[in-house]
Every structure is written in structure tokens, then in C-alpha cells.
Predict the structure of Secreted protein.
Amino acid sequence: MSGIWGVVGPLAGALVALLSGWWAARATKGAAAATAEAHRAAAQATAEPNQRAADLAAFREIRTGLEQRLEQVEARERSLRSLVRSFAFYVNELTAQMRGVGLEPPAPPSRIDEYNRTGV
């Protein structure tokens, strides 16, 4: 009897050692994956405020540029409105002078009639 146990005992011990090694390797691999995930999450948490700050700076730069552009467009619109009003007054004066000497001016285009009626 001792002969068979002399063979089975070391084989069982080797099998237990092999299974223990496999179990430890599996646990180590899982721990390494969990550690890597924790490091990634920590790096992301650290980088997120920096990314938000960079996004905010870019947004402010874009907004400032758009505000400047809007101011330019509004100034141009004010200038054009003033020009149209001045031109309309000038043409009205010329029309009155023509009629004063007996000349009938040509009919204005429909867009001018609309402007004279609505102011827009």
C-alpha cells in the first residue's frame, strides 16, 4: 500500500501546487487589472478639471471674437441705416426741386416705395 501512496502523494502535492499557482496568477491578473483601472480613473479625474479649464478658455476666446464681430456688424448696420436715411432725404430734396421747376421725376423702384411707406 505504501507504494501507491508514495506515488499519489507527490502527484497530489504537485497538482495542488499547480492549482495554487494558477489561482494566484489569476488573482494577481485581476488585481493588476483593478489597479490599472483605478490608475486610469484617477488620471481621468485629475485631467478633467484641466480639460474643463481649457474648454472654458477656448469658449471665452470664441465668445470674445464673436462679440467683437457682432459689434462690427452692428456698427456697419448703424452706418448703413444712416446712409440710407441721408440718401433718402437728399433724393426727396432733389425730387422737390425737380417738381418746383415743372419736371416730373421718374417713379422710384418698388423697394424705395416700400421703404418710404414702412421705413424698413
Summary: The radius of gyration is 44 Å. Helices lie at 2-100, 110-118. Residues 2-118 form one domain.
